Structure formats: structure tokens, C-alpha cells
Amino acid sequence: MKVSNRIAGLTGGGSDGWDVFYKARAMMADGVDVTELTIGEHDIRTDPSILDAMDRSARAGHTGYASVPGTPALRDAIAARVEARTGVKTTRDNVLITPGGQSALFTAHHAVCDEGDIALYCDPFYTTYPGTIRGVGAQPRAVPCRPEAAFQPRFADIAAKRDYAVSILVNTPNNPTGVVYDEQTVEGIARACIEYDMWCISDEVYDTQVWSGTHLSPRALPGMAERTLVVGSMSKSHAMTGSRVGWIVGPQEVIAHAINLATHITYGVPGYIQDAALFALTAGPELEDRVGAPFAKRRDLAHEILAGQNAVRLVPNAGAMYLMLDVRDTGLSGEAFALALLHQERIAVMPGESFGEAAAGHVRVAMTVEDARFEDALRRIVAFAGTKSA
């Protein structure tokens, strides 16, 4: 017996980009002390006040089936949040609650792509993007975002790839690069979507982690609200990665169809978890600031460490919890650099090639260990690169 071609081909027949991560975890399981800077998992846990709210809700009986679109109160809160960020009138009818941002990405592509349709995504990309598109039966096509353009997807880059495409997936602040798309970039994305009649799926899960510049959602621009699906999540903003609470915000008709899809694949998110998310959202910006503060501090620390050396170059990172380091001067690929670093220094980073062709010769460093360990690891990465540089 054989499995379906769709599920067997999710990664396109190649690596899913997680080899270094799996090797690092295997070493750690064997008792090796590895500094793991691979995945975007906070080194703090979910705030106790959020867990208390979750416990109160569960003990009060909100443990049965919850409303599939999401509880009205949580949908209202997210509608208000997105309206404040985009300036576009938003109600609960524009919101679907999903089991995390990944489910939201999958649902959004199901909503706008038919079998065989071409769906664009930006390269470098979060590792699940092409597989998500293949998973709904569409064909992924990468828009290269080149290092010389600071990894910003320009209008010309999109135009060159847009033939027959029905959608484009963008991500700002960006994982893996840490780049925040500037106004020119977002305007170019909007222009491409309008001129070429494409949907914009905007992954904005890092919108609270902006260290310099300003986050601008494509939904905020003229003519875009009716063709944009915004994906959000509690994972990064509130360190609720394991709680699996995300959302899609979009036109009411699309959300109605997405709710029908959710009825068939997830049947909603547990009510007590939604209540905890509502508590977290209404706790105010202080809670979000506490979650983001360690990454802002470590970014500043990284700038200090990387200044005045030329073994690696830092991609200008304005947001998210990552550094992208250009290691091409070592003569190694990102994968070769990451594997050698793991085996020689016991430091695990993600190779740029895991995130697409445009990030080849780079590595992604997650700023997700406590300050002293992070500083030690980054100094050792620089020293290691210095031994490899020509």
C-alpha cells in the first residue's frame, strides 16, 4: 500500500531543513552540553497569570466543545487589535480562531488556492511555507529576496514570478532574517497584488517584536483589505507556543468559508485556552513588553559583539527573535558552517539553506538562551568563523 502523493511530497522530495536541529537534539539526549540556537522557542515560559486564567476557566467548566469560529469575546478582542494596527474596520465576522499560526497558514491557502494553482512565497522563508502550499494541492513558487536588497521583496522580484499566481505569502517582521519590510516594500507588495489580482497572505506573528522601524501590514494600504488575509498568533507575542492559539483576519465571506473548513478539520480550539488568550490580550502591553524585552536586549548585545569584526556580517535585523549571519567569507555553505560549528563548538544554529536559496551562505541564530550563554555562544561563533575565513 502507498500513501498519497500529496503527503509524501510535502517537502518536495528533499530535506525539510531540520537536519542540524535533529542532530543537536540527539546529542543533547546523549548528555552532550549543546547551546541550542535553532528554533524560535522562548527561554521563558508562559506567564503564570495566563496559566492561572487557563486553570480558572477549565475548572469553571469551559472544557467542552467551544464555538468553532472561536469564542465571541476572543474574536472581538482580536478584531479590535487588528483594527487598531491597520486602521481597517474589523468585527468578529472577520476573525477565525485557529490552533496556532501554522493552522492559520494552511487554512488561508485552502481558502484562496484551488488544486494546481500557483502560490508565491518569499525566499528566504519559514521552513513550512512550501510544504503548506503543497499540502493544499497548490504549487509553490519562490520570489527571491536577495541579500543585496536587504532581503526585501521588491515589486520587480514579484512581477518576475507572478505569471498565473493566485496568491503571495509575505512575512514581516521576518523569520528567518529579522528584517522588517519597509514602506516601499509593502507598497510594492500591494501594487503587485492589485495589478496582478492576487491574494496577499500576510504572516504577522512577530508584529509585537519590532526593535527599530515600524511594522506596516499590507492590509492597511488602500485596496488591500478585500484581498488580504492576516495570520496572527499568541505564540511569539505572549510565549504561548504550546497553547496553539492563532487566527486569520480577512473579508467576511472568506472567513465564513474558512469556518466551514475548520468544522471539518479541527472543530475549534479548547475554550479554556481561548479564555487564557483573551486574558493575555487584555492584560495590556506590559505583558507583551516583558516577553519581547529579552530579545531586544540580546539584539543590542549582538550589535556590540559583531561591531569591529569581519569574520561574519549581520543582516540588519529590525524585528523578531533571530539574527541572520552572512558566513560566505569563510568559504563554507551555511549548512557546512552549521554542522562544523555543532561538532566543534557544540553550538547549534540553523543553516540559511534551510530557508531557501536566497539565504545560502548564511546561518540563522535564535536569540533564545539567557544573556550570558547567548553572549558566550555568539563570541565563539565569531571566533570559529575567524578560523575559517580566508
TrEMBL record:
Q: Does the keyword Transferase apply?
A: yes
Q: Which GO terms describe its molecular function?
A: L-aspartate:2-oxoglutarate aminotransferase activity; pyridoxal phosphate binding
- Enzyme class name: transferase
Looking at the record, the residues that make up the Aminotransferase class I/classII large domain are 33-381
Q: What catalytic reaction does the record list?
A: L-aspartate + 2-oxoglutarate = oxaloacetate + L-glutamate
- List its EC numbers: 2.6.1.-
User: GO:BP terms for this protein?
Assistant: amino acid metabolic process
Cofactor needs? pyridoxal 5'-phosphate
Q: What keywords is this UniProt entry annotated with?
A: Aminotransferase, Pyridoxal phosphate, Pyruvate, Transferase
Looking up Pfam families in the UniProt record yields: Aminotran_1_2 (PF00155)
Q: Which family does it belong to?
A: Belongs to the class-I pyridoxal-phosphate-dependent aminotransferase family.
- Spell out the PANTHER family in the cross-references: ASPARTATE AMINOTRANSFERASE
Q: What is this protein called?
A: Aminotransferase
Its source organism is: Litoreibacter ponti
